[in-house]
Design goal:
By secondary structure, the chain is mainly alpha-helical. Helix content is 76%, strand content 0%. The chain has helices at 2-7, 16-47, 55-81, 83-88, 94-119, 125-139.
Length: 148
């Protein structure tokens, strides 16, 4: 998406500078999330042998789930924000943007699958419901709503 944004003339996309800034910020946030994910996995591997109700195990599990959930929400946000670039971006580079959107869609889907797989291990019903609600919001924007 950033390649498409950088190749696009600012007058072709409403609020171009803000959009580019949000995309660059999202890229940096995603890099930070990747680092957090490695640490969350390490913490979970250390805590998974504890009893189900142990607060340390649940804290590690919550962290294990929250990291990919944040990444999925970031992917969702980028998908929606990228619309103006796909519609008015530099024509020879729109296909790069479309490929980027497909990668983002697939990443979001995989991240949600990882969260769903671990959600059954959460013993706090309020937390499980909150996470489930966040997953539900992510599923309300199917890939078909993004222009190809």
């Amino acid at each position: 998406m950033i390649k498409l944004a950088r190749r696009t003339r600012p007058e072709r996309v409403p609020d171009y500078e803000q959009l580019l800034d949000r995309l660059l910020t999202a890229r940096d946030r995603l890099a930070a999330i990747v680092e957090s994910d490695a640490s969350a996995i390490t913490a979970w591997l250390s805590a998974r042998g504890l009893q189900e109700g142990d607060s340390r195990r649940q804290a590690a599990l919550q962290r294990l789930i929250s990291v990919p959930l944040k990444a999925a929400e970031l992917c969702h946000s980028v998908r929606l924000q990228a619309q103006p670039l796909l519609e008015g971006g530099h024509p020879p580079t729109v296909s790069d943007g479309q490929a980027g959107i497909r990668l983002i869609e697939t990443s979001q889907e995989i991240l949600c699958t990882l969260v769903e797989a671990d959600l059954s291990l959460v013993t706090d019903p309020t937390l499980a419901s909150t996470i489930d609600g966040r997953l539900e919001r992510l599923s309300r924007c199917p890939p078909e709503t993004v222009i190809r």
